[in-house]
Write a structure and sequence with these properties.
globular, two-stranded antiparallel sheet, 35% strand, 19-stranded mixed beta sheet
């Protein structure tokens, strides 16, 4: 039997925030994968090494976690006054599925540096030394992100002394601005608070009834009180991810919340929308020890937040969920705001499994509803490898 040589596709392996993924220029993809559809999904799954019943991604670039099973496609901007289109695919680990329903806030950090280094930015706009602002169109959700990327000697500055909990080594700081991050237009899910309420009661058959705040800022997220779930809010990954019954309960909560938010029509559809909504739980500030062994005092944070991604507790915090946390914390009456002590605020520092993160949000009550103009946070990014990724020619 004759086998064809592998396809060789230019690609860059990047860390962005606490995630990493394989980045492609749209025009470098095989023609069949340059448009949405089965060929594109098949290619990205093979790049990552999914579906993998062993859950290891041994035969691909993935890391067998939701933070490392990611692909990004960058193209010239399709929207005026932007530099690039950024399309994100969350690749499932053990099933044949790519979820295009949301953004990755962490990998958003790497889009600006990639755009500068790959010729998407007019050289006249790149300072020899200073900061280059890259205007990103997040194509999954139709939103604008501004990435302020440091430049030294005309090149992206990657190394620095900015420390990000959840990332082992320091790097250069990149500030992100998520403009108008709520889904308050005519898209799926409707307003920033899809039910019109800051707090609802969510009934989940066989699991229980819970107070929830359901919000669509950054990424659709269902917030619960940790205490209502029997948790303190200081849990690390093993406490959740090694408890199969807990994971099953969280998925039931996520599915019923997705229906209540108008994201899906029936519980059965939740399996085809694994990336969104997220489920998170919050608690008041208290002393705890992070996954690295770092002692964190209650006085250093405003609240605790833990979030699940693709069915597992995240090792740190998704960037988009951080936007949701910051936005909800800024609005008096939400569960997140209550956990942070109530009142009005424009920034919040929360504890997560790997440490702490500060995020700011500007929210206002206008014409009878809450709106948010932007959310701001700092992350970092670094190229890990560049060249070409290879996949069998029969993938497409």
């Amino acid at each position: 039997m004759t086998f064809l040589p592998q396809l060789r596709i230019p690609a860059t392996y990047l860390r962005g925030g606490t995630s990493k993924g394989v980045f492609f220029r749209l025009t470098d993809l095989p023609v069949a994968a340059q448009v949405p559809g089965p060929a594109r999904d098949a290619l990205l799954m093979r790049v990552i090494g999914s579906p993998d019943p062993y859950g290891k991604h041994t035969d691909g670039m993935g890391g067998a976690t939701s933070s490392t099973s990611k692909c990004v496609i960058i193209a010239a901007a399709s929207v005026p006054d932007h530099d690039v289109d950024y399309l994100y695919g969350q690749v499932a680990i053990d099933t044949a599925f790519v979820d295009w329903s949301g953004n990755c806030g962490n990998l958003s950090t790497a889009v600006g540096p990639f755009a500068i280094s790959n010729g998407f930015i007019d050289p006249a706009r790149i300072p020899h030394n200073g900061t280059c602002t890259v205007r990103i169109w997040q194509a999954n959700i139709g939103k604008t992100i501004l990435a302020h990327v440091p430049v030294v000697d005309g090149q992206v500055q990657e190394i620095g002394d900015f420390e990000l909990d959840g990332v082992t080594f320091p790097a250069a700081e990149i500030q992100l601005e998520f403009l108008d991050p709520s889904d308050d237009g005519d898209g799926e899910g409707g307003s920033m608070f899809p039910t019109g309420n800051l707090v609802d009661t969510l009934d989940v058959p066989g699991v229980g009834s819970f107070q929830v705040t359901m919000i669509t800022a950054g990424i659709p997220t269902i917030f619960l009180n940790a205490a209502d779930l029997g948790y303190t809010g200081t849990e690390l990954q093993p406490a959740i991810n090694e408890d199969k019954a807990a994971l099953t309960r969280f998925e039931a909560i996520r599915a019923h919340g997705a229906v209540r938010m108008g994201l899906i029509d029936s519980i059965d559809q939740a399996a085809t929308r694994q990336h969104t909504p997220k489920v998170a739980f919050v608690a008041p500030a208290q002393d705890y020890v992070s996954s690295s062994g770092k002692q964190i005092a209650a006085g250093d944070i405003d609240l605790h937040a833990r979030a699940l991604s693709m069915g597992k507790l995240h090792h740190a915090m998704m960037g988009t969920a951080a936007v949701a946390i910051g936005t909800a914390a800024a609005i008096p009456g939400t569960l997140v705001n209550r956990a942070a002590g109530g009142g009005e605020r424009e920034a919040v520092t929360f504890g997560h499994p790997s440490g702490t993160l500060r995020v700011g949000a500007q929210a206002a009550f206008v014409d009878g509803q809450w709106t948010v103009t932007k959310a701001i946070m700092s992350r970092s990014a670094r190229v890990l490898m560049e060249g070409a990724v290879r996949v069998p020619a029969d993938t497409l």
